[in-house]
Design goal:
Number of helices: 4
Order of helices and strands: EHEEHEEEHEEH
Distance between the termini: 28 Å
Radius of gyration: 16 Å
Number of strands: 8
Largest sheet: 4 strands, mixed
Strand order of the largest sheet: 1-4-6-2
């Protein structure tokens, strides 16, 4: 399930809904990304997306995760709009019979979100505003999944 929304999400309620009525789930892995204030440098972060394209791309990568690992369920919720330090940005939840699949799929989804999802971040603070550039560490993390797929 994919949602892109300006509203905050309730982590506990999202996980409860994901596993409601399910007896086949043995592991649930969740990742919550939040806006962090880097020693007073970030007053707010604005996240933008391309409506329709973003949801389609996230659904595609979620399908790829299900093809790579035996998952019972998954959820990606990504916020857009202007957020403050401490606010939730993203929730990725994966559920499987066993923990390895859930952990690997969650890492895969987050690596994709950080590098390739059609989402853009603009940070603003006392020094002004700037668009957040791609990080080479994130690119390296995502590259390992492409390498594994080719093997």
């Amino acid at each position: 399930m994919i949602r892109v929304q300006p509203e905050d999400f309730d982590i506990g309620a999202e996980i409860a809904a994901l596993k409601a009525g399910r007896g086949d789930i043995g592991a649930i892995v969740g990742f919550i990304g939040t806006v962090r204030d880097q020693h007073g440098a970030i007053a707010e972060m604005t996240l933008e997306h391309y409506p329709g394209m973003t949801e389609s791309e996230l659904a595609r990568i979620e399908q790829e995760a299900h093809a790579r690992w035996k998952l019972q369920a998954s959820l990606i919720v990504h916020r857009v709009g202007t957020l403050q330090p401490g606010d939730n940005i993203v929730l990725v939840v994966t559920a499987s019979e066993h923990r390895d699949a859930a952990f690997d799929a969650a890492k895969f989804l987050m690596d994709y979100l950080k590098t390739s999802a059609p989402l853009w971040k603009r940070e603003a603070g006392p020094s002004g505003a700037r668009w957040v550039e791609a990080d080479t560490k994130d690119d390296s993390a995502a590259a390992r999944w492409k390498k594994r797929a080719a093997e």
